[in-house]
Amino acid sequence: QAKRQGRNRAVSFQSEFVEGVSRRVQLVAELRQALERDEFVAVFQPLFDSDERPVALETLVRWQHPERGLLPPGEFIPVCEESGLIVELGRRVLDQAARHYRRLVDEGLPGLRVAVNVSPAQFNDELVRHVTETIQRHSLPPEALELEITEGLLMQDPERAIELMRQIAALGVSFSIDDFGTGYSSLAYLKRFPIDRLKIDRSFVRDLGSDEDDAAICNSIIGLAQALDIRTVAEGVETVLQLDWLRARNIDEVQGYLLGRPMPFEELLPLLLRYLERTREPALLA
Ligand code: C2E
Ligand code: MG
Ligand code: MG
Ligand code: MG
């Protein structure tokens, strides 16, 4: 009896494993097809400076699935990374960012940055070539482009990362470290990389004002970054309490649902125009 149960369990484990693999294989096929059919769309989330002026847009990818609707990156980015499809997807996203920068300029909104997330699997010579090409093809001012990378990428092969970052930074493109605080890098170590900004992970921002440890972590990240002349950005700002706390510590930029969710460019555009009008003429607020 016990033996049979054991065997059944082994069989069911095996079939679950096989199912998992075949689901993944199917997903890769679907993703490949989605690239062919151009089903990936970019949404944009605004970042604001300490004067509440919009200063940047983060490009975030979504999959407009024919049956399942709009899917968040968590559902497909990991498989794109494992399968190598992230390289082609990354090209499309960078292209979208450059195109929409052009739209901003055409609409009378120059001077904003566009940020693009870059996976470790994309971080190679090919990326340097593609960034160079994109800047030229779209006449994108390199200072307007920002690449968001993670601590993990820096730690994996630091020498290689520094080399590639230097090549890209030499073009005038800037780097931010995304989800900062969740990896294992020390700020002193970060000084070796050409980094312009640290984006404090939203898990530390969430409980600001109630969790003293998170407040201490945010405090020390902001303080040390300021000392090292690296700008700070807080992600996941959802409440006025969090915003006030961060502003009181002279955070450089904030991003979060409180100020603007990721949305299609056409929806974001009127909001940006309104924000800028308001901040350009503060008298209107009085
Ligand atoms: P991320 O780069 O850290 O992007 C910020 C994520 O936090 C976004 O999730 C955004 O919707 C979410 N967020 C922003 N403000 C708030 C807030 O106030 N509260 C909460 N709870 N969440 C907030 P999203 O769009 O689901 O993206 C998840 C991750 O997927 C991104 O995290 C990024 O790592 C990755 N990703 C997105 N687009 C791309 C892409 O084009 N290429 C690559 N390689 N990765 C991407
Ligand atoms: Mg990001
Ligand atoms: Mg982030
Ligand atoms: Mg994050």
TrEMBL record:
Domain of life: Bacteria
EAL domain residues: 24-276
Signal peptide: none
Name this protein carries in UniProt: PAS domain S-box-containing protein/diguanylate cyclase (GGDEF) domain-containing protein
Organism listed in the record: Cognatilysobacter xinjiangensis
Portion of the full-length sequence here: 817 to 1102 of 1102
